[in-house]
């Protein structure tokens, strides 16, 4: 029923040949009506005698096969409407590979499987369309998306933006730092990096450009912030629920494991922004141009309480379903405290439309990912793929991680967050766990690198969306984003060698791992930007980079050496900070680089 509803809503929201139903009707209207009719007909066929349908699994008749083909086509067509052709082509390839494996070569060579078995597996069993992600989408995810849509309609997004700009705007680089925090919050709720760039970037990017940041850098900041929000708890683009199911652990365990990596990521991005702003000699924003953080809290701060209620319910051990329902009730009740946040019939309907759009972007690609993963397992390709990673790395964990990184980035290009996680969990994670990587670390490693595809050229979707708003070159913005989030390409390796970063181990081990990683990414940012407490000459940048590398390596002796090097450079800079004239010379020297990009 959930898949049927999502396909129908998808067709209504994304009609064929038009952007929306507001545009004039064209010849594709008949096709849309036919797709809706077929979708409903398939659901009626299943529900007419659902117990008989279940009992025919493995013994499907020709009618079942025909209905299965229609349903697979409808899922693929809806996927095309949501995210384009990339995932449709992937699905078609892997299904054909299952049917004609003997005609392929290399890793794709395998036995050819009868079409009746393929259709039965993908349509009638719980290993294809109706797999774990769909059941999670229909239970947990839909409630969290409704909560997010409703609370955003009360203006909580503007509230967070005003608080962020009010608190950070007075600092050097304040607008960019505030953009990072506000965009991250919005993306953590929406679960889509690209759509969040299109939403929040229309405000944050022009503001950063007015403050003196080059267009490519302004776009890169927004792209990195929105991308990081996707793996920020508690929702993580609906991946947290699926990951918990795959790992067989409570949802709250995934939230705890993902919290420290998200903190380190944003610390690294904020450090890069901070040092770049000082290097460019940018001034703090005038108080008159800034909103009042306290005023925003006084007027709309009560709308933060639903978030507190939801997180609090999860912390004390209530189920995600109860926590989401509690949050939704709190949104409705608290919105009536002030006129500007009140949930009227218009905002209610608008929130439902927002929720429907977000649900379609999660559920439809999840169904398509179920088809792909089902075909991978049915043909044995998933096992062969995992074995190939181990064979190519010759049992070396670091080589396997490097291969996994490249594969995850490639698989993540052009598909939604939920779908990319399902794919990397099926293809990459088994190889890592066979090599002894802690399961939670392996899943987060694969997920992070899959998400990094949004800021990694040549298919950096978040960066390209930001470039369109900034009016900058897309590839230049993509490389700026990859540079800005440089620590993000090192951080997942630290999950593996420092399990404390994913909340595995005693509290003191977790604390030491977190502090070490934070100092390491800040030192790396200082080395890249050439600024700590003042301009850093070449030898200091090399020393900071060496200290950062030592801090992210696993042995304790390397941590001690890294701390010593970073502390020494920090002490030298603090005690011998440049004179105002020297600082001006340093800024004048760096300004052209800021305009043309590093």
What distinguishing features does this structure have?
single chain; 29 helices; 74% helix; disordered C terminus; 0% strand; 598 residues
Give an overview of the whole structure.
The chain is mainly α. Among the domains are: 2-125, no CATH class; 505-598, no CATH class. The chain is built from 29 helices and no strands. The relative contact order is 0.11. Mean pLDDT is 87; it is low at 578-598.
Blueprint of the fold:
Layout lengths: L1 H12 L15 H20 L1 H6 L6 H22 L2 H14 L15 H10 L7 H22 L2 H13 L5 H17 L2 H18 L4 H16 L8 H9 L3 H30 L12 H8 L4 H11 L4 H16 L9 H35 L1 H13 L3 H16 L4 H11 L1 H6 L4 H14 L8 H10 L3 H11 L6 H7 L9 H23 L8 H15 L3 H20 L4 H17 L2
Class by alpha and beta content: mainly alpha
Overall mean pLDDT score? 87
Cα end-to-end separation: 52 Å
- Strand content of the residues, in percent? under 5%
* Overall helicity: over 70%
* Helix-strand topology string: HHHHHHHHHHHHHHHHHHHHHHHHHHHHH
Radius of gyration, CA atoms, in whole angstroms: 25 Å
Q: What general outline do the C-alpha atoms trace?
A: globular
- Give the low-pLDDT segments: 578-598
**How many DSSP-defined strands?**
0
Number of helical stretches of at least 4 residues:
29
Strand count, sense and barrel status of the largest sheet are: none
